[in-house]
Specification:
single chain, about 375 residues, alpha/beta, eight-stranded parallel β-barrel, five-stranded antiparallel sheet, about 40% helix
Length: about 375
Amino acid sequence: MRFRHPDGTTVHLAYCTNVHPAETFDGVLAQLRDHCEPVRRRLGRDRLGIGLWLARDAARTLAADPSALRTLRDELDRRGLEVVTLNGFPYEGFGADEVKYRVYRPDWTDPERLEYTTALARVLTGLLPDDVTEGSISTLPLAWRTAPGTPRALDALRSLAECLDALAELTGRSVRVGLEPEPGCVVETTGDALAPLTAIGHPRIGVCVDTCHLATSFEDPQRALDALAEAGVPVVKAQLSAALHAGQPHRPEVRRALAAFAEPRFLHQTRTLTAAGLRGTDDLEEALTGDALPDAAPWRAHFHVPLHAAPAPPLTSTLPVLKAALTRLVGGPRPLTRHLEVETYTWQALPPELRPRTRDRLADGIAAELTLARDLLTDLGLKELP
């Protein structure tokens, strides 16, 4: 979906396909048929943006085989879909029964992360619509916090920047890559991103702001985004997502409600803001066990809940943080980013009674999220384009 900002800029809205497990090229083609096109039809749109997640095997196929890349581009066109952004954070196995810490490997200290991301950039230049010259990729925020070798990771990003410069010169299309701050990682917050990215100092390497992660770390959207702007760090893309919020975690009924979201597939880092600063656990189950996390103040958990459907009381979501961030991102005289992506990948990790049981129900939910995002954008003065 495309929108015209009051300054004349085109802002793209997509939804991320990491909600649909697929590891291979054929799996990606099936996604377009079985999921993405049905969502477009529900929205009554001739064209729908998707943020493709391409696992390692699919990325390698597309980067090495021009005919496969042409086939994918033709399928996108045929099904009324377009791609300006890729999710390059998960490497493989995102649809596995247990993902947890695996999603942070390989990190930016491993040459395979650079190889994978460079392949994604080459693929993206071949997928961009004819009238679009800039693409974006979100990536791992260096590494999980316990990984050694941050200087090596920064060197890899400098090598990536050189590759992106060469690719732009060769193709006439610019690809930018954004580190996606996430709780528990070396770069946990947007503030943590300032030092490494100013050290790199390259316009093609910036930040992907995920509003669930922003909220989980109790960052103030206005201050966080102002700091990035003042430091000259580009917001390459933003992922529109909402975290799980528990206002009174000391109450037994709140604990029981939270326990329904403690599931074995994904890591749900949980945080609370105390007088001494941010405190947290690596997973929601850990927070619910014993006194690992103080419960005198609200908790937020890294669980991407559907944008349009907040959990039932006594829980809620951090949708207000998303709205505040979006206002700063695109509500001003000039947009801070032109690429927005709804990224609720946890539909099948929701408590059983909330999970969509069929493809049709999942498509309904994704379409409802995109409708909410569209309404937020038009309320900010952007005009939806055909």
